Predict the 3D structure of the following.
Amino acid sequence: IDTRSARDMHDVTERDRPGLSMLGAAQKRWLIDSMQQSDASFFFFISSVPFMIPHSGAGGFESDAANKEEAWTGFFDEREQLIEFWKGLNKPVFVMTGDLHNSFAVKITDKIWEFCCGPHNSVNHVPALDESNRPATGPFKFGPRACDIRWSSYILPDLPRLERLYPHFCIVQVNNVFNMPQKIGDTRWVAYPHPQIIFQYYDGRTGELAYAESISPRP
């Protein structure tokens, strides 16, 4: 989705002001109609800015004075509208985000998740300074809705700025079929009744697996 072209001017002192929109009326209507009419078992919602974690700083260049929020945490009303709409679909929704210079997996509800990946070439943000002092893992609430941070990259404030270089990358694997040939070496693909979506975070320096979350879109 486009999170910039139709974004309303906002005020970080009024994050819950009704009617503020990140999407704009036309794009939001299209999004809702498309998801309602879809027969998909699950959805990927791609946003350029984070959904549940505030972007309150900029890796050493704090942005409070600019009175702006590069995240859905400046648009609580519309964010809650989307979450309530997605809950009504009763299907998994995976909110894929970026821009914030850390990676994290966040459980919002039983079927709504956020997966953020970054940075790749820039310095990491410091959560204590740039992300409203969120924890590395565990319960977190900024605004009207609590969430569960299942895993995240996390930089401590005592690191010099140019030492904050801990990239991660995320691979999403959809397991919707398995191979079960009648003869070893042949191919016969069989559909899973309930596919699995696996989100795998890897250390960008070592290539080692840092975290994985497997989710199945059960009814």
User: Anything to note?
Assistant: The longest strand covers residues 189-203. The longest helix spans residues 76-89. The chain has a mean pLDDT of 93. The domain at 25-158 is CATH 3.60.21.10 (Purple Acid Phosphatase; chain A, domain 2).
